[in-house]
Write a structure and sequence with these properties.
- By secondary structure, the protein is of the alpha/beta class.
- The protein has 3 helices and 8 strands; from the N terminus they run αβββαβαββββ.
- It has one domain: Sandwich (Immunoglobulin-like).
- The chain has a 5-stranded mixed beta sheet with strand order 2-8-7-4-5, with no helix packed on it. A 3-stranded mixed beta sheet has the order 1-3-6, with no helix packed on it.
Length: 152
């Protein structure tokens, strides 16, 4: 009987240990990118209960930033194309993002193969029901290298 209770206690403790990190991970995601101009994630859902949301971008390819750079940029869907076009005009030295653009909610730095960057942003900047798009602002990439983000 005591052995059974100990086993049940161990199972419950183990379940709680796994449940707690899972809840913390709801406010973070890792997104991979590659030399084929793809994110491995096409849709991100941010729980409205998160105060801050963290994105880690991994460039899993081998090509350098100058030829196959990737970043992760978040805007409203309505602003995406304009931000991407103005970013292209800003050039490589600016990571293809217009400086101090208020339409950019969050972004990582531009990465080359094997590099990684992590950013966090305030979820209060987002509104449930608004359409958001994340994309890579490297010239030509944003047309296919994008996904949606929503708050629920």
């Amino acid at each position: 009987m005591i052995r059974s209770l100990s086993l049940i206690g161990a199972v419950v403790a183990g379940a709680l240990a796994f449940a707690l990190p899972a809840q913390a991970d709801d406010c973070a995601i890792t997104v991979g990118s590659n030399d084929a101009m793809q994110f491995d994630t096409k849709e991100i859902t941010v729980p409205a209960s998160c105060k801050s949301f963290t994105v880690t971008l991994n460039h899993n390819g081998k090509l350098p930033k100058a030829s196959m750079g990737h970043n992760w940029v978040l805007t409203t869907t309505a602003d995406m194309q304009t931000v991407a076009n103005e970013g292209m005009a800003a050039g490589a030295a600016a990571d293809y993002l217009k400086a101090d653009d208020p339409r950019i909610i969050a972004h990582t730095k531009m990465l080359g193969g094997g590099e990684s960057d992590t950013i966090s942003f305030d979820v209060s900047k987002l509104s449930a029901g608004t359409d958001y798009t994340f994309f890579c602002s490297f010239p030509g990439h944003w047309a296919i290298m994008k996904g949606t983000l929503s708050v629920k």
